[in-house]
Amino acid sequence: MDEKNYWTCPPEAEVRGGGEFTVTLVLPPFTDHAAAWPHNDPVRAREFAASFGTVEEIVAYEGEHTISHGFGLQTRDDLEWIEVGVWDNVIGISDPSLADRGLSWPVLEQVRDLAARFPEARIVGSSSVDRGETHEEVAWAVPGFDVVHSEGWPCNDDPEVWTLEGDPQAVLDACGVTARMAEEADIEFHPDSPADTYWGGLGELILGTNCPWRRRKARTSIFRVRHTHAATDLMEENWLDV
């Protein structure tokens, strides 16, 4: 295996901050998985990981673990790990290269690429990075609608400096997400004030019973990967201050 990589800092370089960074696809038919969650398919998980836009090559497979196990970001070495699950018609990936601070919009890029590959899927991408102040980016791709993209810093309530594209209300309506559902889940949605909206929570409502990331016993496949040059550069900017 060629061990080349694109890092300009050592493996022990300290990661600054933390967050969540996932993309989830639900393929038709949109099965209700409320009763029982399917098993992870490690073969399909590896295929999806290898095809993901931020990944240049899979370096190692480290088996499965439960989502509740998680893995923290302490050093640069931790940024090379991703987790992927394929549960029947649901595909999910957690990848630290999806994190951003308003520099490149990696969530939008990957959601658009996946929407081209899986045009019938509902796709929800979300990242939240906390480094003293929180930056959020979400993108939703639902067949028949323009991609919804929201990005900004919730601490800044000026809508002029918040990116919002697409029609989130139309997408929520199409996916059966009602105002009552949002209220019962304590999820804020303010169309005229995107900084006050809980975009990650709305994405989970779109996924409904097909959202894997709160299912602590769901199993994922763990891979060490070499990210692309562009993804590596972005991680150094976001996580390592290089």
Quickly list its features.
about 240 residues, 6 helices, globular, alpha+beta, nine-stranded antiparallel β-sheet
Query: Globular, elongated, flat, extended or rod-shaped: what is the shape?
Result: globular
**Count of separate DSSP helical elements:** 6
- Derived from helix and strand composition plus strand pairing, the structural class reads alpha+beta
Distance between the termini: 27 Å
State the order of secondary-structure elements, H for helix, E for strand. EHEEEHEEEEHHHEH
How many strands appear in the DSSP assignment? 9
What is the count of distinct domains? 1
Task: Extract low-pLDDT stretches.
Answer: none
Can you give a write-up of this model?
The protein is α+β, with helices and mostly antiparallel strands. It has one domain. The protein has six helices and nine strands. The protein has helices at residues 42-51, 106-117, 168-174, 179-184, 199-207, 229-240, and strands at residues 18-26, 55-66, 81-87, 90-94, 122-130, 134-141, 148-152, 163-165, 219-227. A hairpin with a 6-residue loop joins strand 6 and strand 7 (148-152). The longest helix has 12 residues, at 106-117. The model has no long low-confidence stretch (mean pLDDT 94). It holds the Pfam family DUF6333.
Structure summary:
The chain has 242 residues and is an alpha+beta fold. The protein has 6 helices and 9 strands. A 9-stranded antiparallel sheet has the order 2-9-3-4-1-5-6-7-8, sandwiched between helices.
